[in-house]
Amino acid sequence: MDGGIMKSQGIPFWVWVCLAGVVAFTFVPLSSRFRAEQSNRAVELSAEIDSIEQLAAGQQLSLVEALDRLKRSGLGAVVVSEETLDDVAKYSGDLRIESLPEGAGTRILASQGIADRLAKGLQVRFGNARVQVAPLPDGAAEILVVGYHYATLRGVSLGLPPQWTSVVRSSGLRVIGRMSNPLGANPESVRGSIEWASGQGMAVFLPQGEQVLGRREGLDALIESLRSKGLLYASPEFVKIGGDSNVLREAPDIAVSLHSAQTAELDRMASSEIVERYVRAGRERNCRILLLRPATFSSEAPLEDFAKLAGGIRDGLIRSGAGVGPARPFAPVQTLPFLPALLCLLSAPVAFFAALAITENRSVASLLTVLLLISGAATLTGAFVSYAALALAVLFPVAAFVVCERLEAALPVRFLAVSGVSLIGGLCVAAVLTSPEYFVRGAVFSGVKLSLLGPIALVGAAAFVRYAGGWPSLKQPATWLQLSLGLLVLAAFGMLAIRTGNDNPSAVSDLELRFRAMLDALLYVRPRTKEFLIGHPMLVVSLGLMALHRSGNRKVGGWLALALALAWIGQTGIVNTLCHLHTPLSIGLTRVAVGLMTGGILGGALWLVARRALRPGGA
What parts of the sequence cross the membrane (predicted)? Predict the structure, then answer.
């Protein structure tokens, strides 16, 4: 043992004071974030215009009648995609295109309406395009485009179809314009495209294809145009689009998240599951626009069925407290000057205490504490905030391990105290990284994997040394049970590593999805599986085994070390839950509380069985 701290067991009073100080200083930004989230809970339901038109045709209804029916079911906006000359050529029978000899240009015969749209599109796209439009006696028009071959003209945007934008607007619904990034677009054409769409009534811009309009050099022009016209930018959730993250990062003040589902996904789900999926997106992931798609292609009354689906989602949102209304961005969040540095300063004594208790080396503890202070000081430059958040996210679950070992109290009190210290790490991340760009995924906490796996590795190693004999025990012959458990634990941690992160590549199985749906139906907020089924029950067992170990039963040391390593899956899971910065704070905290309650009950039952089995001559 080293120093006065280690000579006396227990937890010094000043450690609790520092912990209370950290919690107090996270209160200001977190309370501001809570108010911003609570004041912006309305979700806007939307659908695609071509789907609505086809569903209406299935019931011999007009588009106006269909929009009116869907509006009464909660629909607030309609997605209208821009058309290109090539798109129009596929359905317009009166469109004729002729390439002039020797590359002189292209001659197009079209209706006057299409001619006007093409002339506008050419002017927006090429600016100085030499275009001549001449009316013909039969009401059509001749467009002569000098110097451009049809291969170039076919991708020219004709803007949003005016016949659809006008009927959507006259139905009292908002237009969500879906636009692509054409090859060769420049900042001027980006500005012109947005101004044109705005003039057609577009309220929300939705990117289409693999890149956002203006990617790369024209993104500033896009953001500037959207702001100047008072338009919103909708970012599709779970979809990779080039330039999307740039816009979210640079312009969170005009950005909202949009959730949609593919037809293939909906086809595998029951109607109730579809409703639940959309409601969860609005309630738990801050998606402010839901793009609805029909659950099935065929039915007796396809539009009516779609209206019922929309109505079910609307009712679900209202029951959840979110409500239905026009989408809007989140308001800025109030924070404290130099908060990351302040939190690191207040956490430094805790870091020293925890490091000294685990390593029993004052030099190592001092070095780690200095590193924490340096990470905090570095944030004063305005950068490195994410590194400070990562340091705090790792520190508190590790400090919770020391509390687990040293706190003298009844088992339930120790269970809550250990989890509470870990929770402080999550509160720090949520407080330090609180701003609208995190709400819409414009920025994410980049240390998710390390904050989740790092404390588990540190606590697992410390527990192995303290309770399982450390390195010398590895030289002893192993039993088949030990080998099997070792492989099982490695597989579990490998799966945890794969499935953790902001871009989780591992698909969730149908069985797990159904299990989650069952939990969603039974509980107000679904707890995280790894917390309430593994981590928290094993923490209860760990606390029980630790009491046996203290009483002199050294035979439980190996089991205690294993249980502690598994228990810290739950502890780091608590921090990780609050690292999902797009999830409302109220949902994250409730999820932690529900996980602790259910996991604690399961752990209590498990410990009763384990304690009986561990008694001398027990069953």
Answer: 13-31, 338-358, 370-403, 415-435, 447-468, 480-498, 532-549, 556-575, 587-610
- Report the candidate in 209, 188, 198, 203 with the shortest Cα–Cα distance to residue 233: 203
Confidence of residue 333 (pLDDT cuts 50, 70, 90): confident
Would strands 232-236 and 255-260 be described as parallel, antiparallel, or unpaired?
A: parallel
pLDDT score at 517: 74
More confident residue, 445 or 606: 606
The answer to whether 539 and 418 are in contact (CB under 8 A) is yes
Residue type, 348: A
Alpha helices in 321-447 (DSSP H): 339-359, 362-378, 385-406, 411-432, 436-439
CA separation for the pair 236, 618 (Å, rounded): 57
Instruction: Give which of 157, 244, 144, 168 is closest to 194, Cα–Cα.
Output: 157
Mean local confidence (pLDDT), 591-607: 96
CA distance 471 to 8: 27
CA–CA distance, 496 with 460 (Å, rounded to integer): 15
Nearest to 600 by CA among 536, 524, 526: 536
Q: Per this entry, what is the length of the chain?
A: 619
Q: Name the band, by pLDDT with cuts 50, 70 and 90, for residue 164.
A: very high
User: Beta strands 287-292 and 174-179: pairing type?
Assistant: unpaired
CA distance 350 to 343: 11
pTM here?
Answer: 0.85
**What is the maximum alpha-carbon separation in the chain?**
105
- Mean pLDDT (the chain, rounded): 89
Q: How far apart are CA 179 and CA 465, in angstroms?
A: 60
Non-local CB neighbours of 517 within 8 Å, separated by 6+ positions: 273, 276
| CA atoms in the 13 A half-sphere facing the CB of 125 | 25
Calculate mean pLDDT across residues 51-62: 94
> How confident is the model at residue 508, as a pLDDT?
62
In this prediction, residue 500 carries a pLDDT of 67
Does 392 or 89 have the greater pLDDT score? 392
* Cα 554 to Cα 224: distance, rounded to the nearest angstrom: 68
CA dihedral sign of residues 53, 230, 192, 443:
negative
Per-residue pLDDT tens over the stretch 66-124: 999 999 999 999 999 999 998 888 877 777 888 887 667 888 888 888 888 988 998 89
Rounded distance between C-alpha atoms, residue 457 and residue 452, angstroms: 9
* Distance in angstroms (rounded) separating the CA atoms of residues 582 and 456: 25
121/609 Cα distance (integer angstroms) = 74
Pairing of strands 75-81, 174-179: parallel
Average pLDDT in the 527-553 region? 93
Nearest to 53 by CA among 86, 80, 73: 80
Is 350 within 8 Å of 399 (Cβ atoms)? yes
DSSP 308-347: HHHHHHHHHHHHHT--B----PPPP----TTHHHHHHHHH
Q: What percent helix, strand, coil does the chain show, rounded to 5?
A: 60, 10, 25
